[in-house]
Amino acid sequence: MAKSQLFEGRFGRMFRRLPAFEPDDATIAAIAEAMAEPNGGDPSGDNDQIPAGFTFLGQFIDHDLTFDPVSSLDRQNDPDALTNFRTPRFDLDSVYGRGPADQPYLYDKTNRDKFLIGEHDNELDLPRSSQGVALIGDPRNDENIFISQLHLTLLLFHNRVFDRRADFAQAAPQAGETEFAAVQRVVRWHYQWLVVHDFLRRVVGEQTLGDVLVREPLTAGGPPVEKTRLTFFTWRNQPFMPVEFSVAAYRFAHSMIRGRYTVNSNVPSRPIFTSTPIAESDPLSHLGGLRPLPAGWQVEWRRFFEVDAANPPQPSRKIDTEIAGPLLALPPEVAPRMPSLAQRNLTRGVRLGLPSGQAVARALGQTPLTDDQLGLPKPGPAPLWYYLLREANQLAGGKHLGPVGGRIVAEVFLGLLAADPSSYLRADPGWTPFLPSATAGDFTMADLIKFTGFGLTPVA
């Protein structure tokens, strides 16, 4: 197995020459207050193009790419000095950790090639310590019920590929690979494919994805391969994590979160979080994590992804500047000192010196939104995160990101993937998925779930 190189990544700037936009605290507070979702989640704000599960898949992907445990909302930060403690690669290091040799507690001691799976109350859960702490590669993947069940699904996906490795010729070890490394390659490449062709396609739109990723022959008459066309995300020696992406553009999914979700057939809808400390709250009143899965709460994935044509999943919310109420009053375990997620995002953007949305739009050759389109409490420059959410609403009807936000996300995703020598896009750009799927040569999140067999049966 090629080990993850922790501590190697760095944050940096995509638009280094643009000046910082630094609104004062009162302006930030006013914008954050204006972002509260009205009417408690009116159905008109639903996004029928993106099922609710992709909100949490986006969170999972973020945890795979970035982790900055040392910066603070309380001080000015230089992004060039921040270390990304997560490799800027789609390599599932949040799942694999440092591998079975270095972190054996993540793996089944009866077979170190497979992950340890937790089970209690006749349902599967993340493996946990005697105190309920999840034994996983990234503790953030236990922040809520859905991200923990998604992490569990990836553990089961690896185990299922390992169990069925003899069924697929392409899963056989290549030169220098162990059986574990071969299975890990299969898992990673199918994951990378669905990140690009299922998740990214939905959130940036067909046109933007087609502008950045093309499939054409390398030579006349040759087989088609995937190639990237990057214009704005470039680097000299090694790729970095742009703060314009991690602190603004990729936080679009915060607006997609619903105020309440239905987990399965037996559990009535619940909010993601409670504003009181999780340890002091009614454990059955919310969908927060950092605890064993409550009995009877196994997630039915048909409610979140398109795994059952007869039962459409819950939709996500539109990508816009309306943030669900529970995210504006987060519990202290999740958001100490500043419970409003909107205020935290806006404050973080100021601390890291992000440019205004209008400045970034001009840098990308786009005509900036007008004051009327932006709808800020006061006319003028807009924080980049707010601008990109408003752009999605005004130019794409909230169905996907607009031309500025979509371009940033698409270029960073595909740039990082193309820069990784172990990714399918770099190592074998003509590769296509081979595991069972609804469409031959494709692989979606729904296909992954069906392959594991997890979360498909309605909870009795």
Number of helical segments?
A: 14
Cα-atom Rg, whole angstroms?
A: 21 Å
Instruction: Report the structural category.
Output: alpha+beta
Average predicted local confidence, pLDDT: 91
How far the N terminus sits from the C terminus, by CA atoms, comes to 40 Å
Uncertain parts: 1-8, 68-76, 81-85
Total E-strand runs: 13
Strand content: 5-15%
- Report the helical percentage: 25-40%
Globally, the shape reads: globular
Order of helices and strands: EHEHEHEEEEHHHEEEHEEEHHHHHHH
Q: Largest sheet, order of strands side by side?
A: 3-1-10
Sheet with the most strands, sense and barrel status? 3 strands, mixed
Note down, in words, how this protein is organized.
With 460 residues, the protein is α+β, with helices and mostly antiparallel strands. The chain is 32% helix and 10% strand. The strands form six sheets. The chain has a three-stranded mixed beta sheet. The longest helix is centred in the middle third of the chain and has 26 residues, at 179-204. The relative contact order is 0.19. Mean pLDDT is 91; it is low at 1-8, 68-76 and 81-85.
